Task: inverse folding
C-alpha cells in the first residue's frame, strides 16, 4: 500500500506557533511578510503491506497514543514513497511528497472546495500574493522507528514522527517565498532562523510552494 | 568595601532565580534581578551575569530558543563581548547555546545544540546527583577548580551535540569542555547514570568566546550548602555531609557548588 501521513492539529490556540510567529516578526525582522504560521504534528507511515487505508486510519486514531479527540483534530493523507529512505540517507525527499486527503474528523473537508487538500486542512487566510511553504522537520539522529506497541494492520510498518511548519508569506513569487521560509526557519545564528535546529533536525519540503489566492 | 555587582537575568518561565540570588549572595557577590521586560536594563553597571534554570517561554519551539532572540539578550551579548563573564545554568546554558555565545566561534553563529537526553532504555527528563570534574582551566569559572564535586542535574535536553564533527574535535583540543561528568572518584564516567544524558565526551559544561562564557547543565545553586547534599553520597563530600548530620551549624557550611558561583568574586577591583 502507498505510504500514509497522519496529521494532527490542536483544537486550542497553539501557543508555540503564536510565540514563534511573534519572534519571527519582531526579533527576526519578518514583520508583516509573515501572514500566518501553523504547526502540526505528524507521523509518516511506510512499509505498509497489509491492511486498508480505513484500517490504518482507525489504528492511528484508536490504537496509538498519538491522537486525543479532546485536544486534537486529525487527517490522513496519501504520500509518495521514498521519504523514509531519504530521511535515513540525508537525501532529498520525493517531490511532491504529501498527496491526497483520505479521511479526517473535520466534516467540512469532505465538501467540495476550491483549494487543495493541504490548504483546506491548514485553513490559512487566503490573501493575495501570499505563498504557502510547508516544511517537515524531523529528528536527525533516529528519524525512522518501529511502530509503537499496539495492534496495527501491519506490525512491520515503520514510522517517522515530524513537525509540519507551514508559513504563509507575502512574496513576489514562489521561489522567493521558499528562500525566505528557509532563511527564517533554519536556526543559523542569533538573528537568523528559529523553527528548525540544524544540529538536531533535518527538514524537507512537504508539498510544492503554492499561491494561496490569485485572481 | 562594596561587593561585585552581578545581574541575574529573568525570562518568563525561569524558576530558579530566587535560590540563585540567595546563593550568589552567600558566595560573596551583590546580585540583582534584571527582568526581561525592564526596558533598557543598563547592564553596563554589572560586572557579570547569570542566567538561571527553568523553562523560559515554556521551552516553546526548543529549550532556550525564544529567550535567545530577546532584546535583553542582545544587550547582554554586547556586554559579554567586552569580556564580562556569564554563567548559564541549565535552561540558561540552553539559552547561551541558542544565542551562539557557546562555543562562539563566529559572532552569533549557532554551532551546537542541547539535544534531548539519549540513554539506552531511558529518555526524557532526568534529575539526580552526579559528579563533575574541571577539565580545563581556560574558562573563567573553572580557573580555580581542581577536584571532582557532586552537583544536581535536572533536565530533558542537556546533551551538547553538533553535526560538525571537526568542530567538536577542535573544541575538545582547545579545552572548551570546561567540566565533564565523572565517577565519584574523578575517573571518566562509566555511562549512565554517571553520564546522565548520553553526551559524547561526558561534557557537562562548555565554555565560549574567550573563556568568559560557561554553559553548565547541572545546578550549582542546589549544591551550595552542605545540608543540600544527600547523606548517602559517595566520596569526600558525602563524608563531610555525614559528619555534619545533626549539627545545624555544620550543615550550613559551604557546599561543593559554591566555588563555581564564587568565581565572580575575582572580578573585584577589575574595571567593568
Result:
Amino acid at each position: 500500500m502507498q505510504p500514509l501521513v497522519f496529521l494532527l492539529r490542536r483544537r486550542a490556540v497553539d501557543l508555540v506557533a503564536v510565540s514563534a510567529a511573534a519572534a519571527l516578526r519582531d526579533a527576526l525582522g519578518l514583520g508583516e511578510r509573515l501572514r500566518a504560521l501553523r504547526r502540526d504534528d505528524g507521523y509518516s507511515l511506510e512499509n505498509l503491506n497489509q491492511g486498508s487505508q480505513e484500517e490504518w486510519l482507525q489504528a492511528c486514531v484508536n490504537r496509538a497514543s498519538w491522537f486525543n479527540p479532546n485536544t486534537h483534530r486529525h487527517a490522513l493523507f496519501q504520500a509518495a514513497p521514498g521519504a523514509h529512505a531519504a530521511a535515513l540517507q540525508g537525501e532529498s525527499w520525493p517531490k511532491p511528497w504529501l498527496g491526497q486527503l483520505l479521511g479526517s474528523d473535520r466534516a467540512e473537508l469532505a465538501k467540495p472546495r476550491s483549494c487543495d487538500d493541504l490548504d483546506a486542512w491548514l485553513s490559512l487566510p487566503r490573501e493575495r500574493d501570499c505563498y504557502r511553504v510547508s516544511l517537515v522537520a524531523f529528528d536527525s539522529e533516529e528519524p525512522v522507528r518501529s511502530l509503537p506497541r499496539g495492534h496495527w494492520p501491519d506490525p512491520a510498518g515503520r514510522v517517522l514522527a515530524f513537525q509540519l511548519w507551514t508559513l504563509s508569506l507575502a512574496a513576489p513569487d514562489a521561489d522567493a517565498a521558499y528562500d525566505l521560509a528557509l532563511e527564517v526557519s533554519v536556526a543559523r545564528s542569533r538573528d537568523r532562523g528559529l523553527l528548525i535546529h540544524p544540529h538536531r533536525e533535518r527538514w524537507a519540503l512537504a508539498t510544492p510552494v503554492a499561491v494561496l489566492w490569485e485572481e | 568595601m562594596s561587593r561585585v555587582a552581578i545581574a541575574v537575568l529573568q525570562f518568563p518561565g525561569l524558576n530558579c532565580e530566587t535560590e540563585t540570588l540567595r546563593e550568589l549572595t552567600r558566595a560573596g557577590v551583590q546580585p540583582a534581578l534584571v527582568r526581561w521586560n525592564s526596558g533598557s536594563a543598563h547592564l553596563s553597571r554589572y560586572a557579570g551575569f547569570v542566567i538561571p534554570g527553568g523553562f523560559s517561554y515554556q521551552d516553546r519551539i526548543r529549550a532556550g530558543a525564544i529567550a535567545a532572540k530577546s532584546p535583553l539578550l542582545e544587550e547582554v551579548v554586547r556586554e559579554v563581548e567586552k569580556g564580562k563573564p556569564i554563567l548559564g545554568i541549565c535552561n540558561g546554558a540552553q539559552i547561551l547555546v541558542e544565542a551562539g555565545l557557546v562555543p562562539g566561534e563566529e559572532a552569533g553563529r549557532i554551532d551546537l545544540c542541547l539535544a534531548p537526553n539519549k540513554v539506552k532504555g531511558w529518555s526524557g527528563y532526568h534529575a539526580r546527583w552526579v559528579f563533575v570534574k574541571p577539565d580545563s582551566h581556560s574558562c573563567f569559572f573553572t580557573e580555580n577548580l581542581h577536584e571532582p564535586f557532586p552537583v544536581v542535574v535536572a533536565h530533558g535536553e542537556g546533551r551538547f551535540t553538533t553535526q560538525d564533527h571537526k568542530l567538536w574535535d577542535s573544541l575538545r583540543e582547545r579545552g572548551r569542555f570546561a567540566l565533564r561528568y565523572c565517577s565519584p572518584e574523578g575517573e571518566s564516567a562509566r555511562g549512565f547514570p554517571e553520564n546522565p544524558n548520553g553526551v559524547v565526551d561526558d561534557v557537562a559544561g562548555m565554555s565560549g568566546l574567550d573563556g568568559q562564557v560557561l554553559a553548565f547543565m547541572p545546578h550549582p545553586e542546589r549544591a551550595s550548602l552542605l545540608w543540600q547534599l544527600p547523606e548517602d553520597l559517595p566520596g569526600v563530600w558525602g563524608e563531610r555531609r555525614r559528619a555534619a548530620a545533626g549539627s545545624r551549624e555544620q550543615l550550613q557550611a559551604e557546599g561543593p557548588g559554591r566555588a563555581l558561583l564564587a568565581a565572580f568574586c575575582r572580578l573585584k577591583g577589575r574595571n567593568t
About this structure: The mean pLDDT of chain A is 93. Helices of chain A lie at 15-27, 53-63, 83-89, 117-122, 174-185. Residues 4-211 of chain A form one domain.
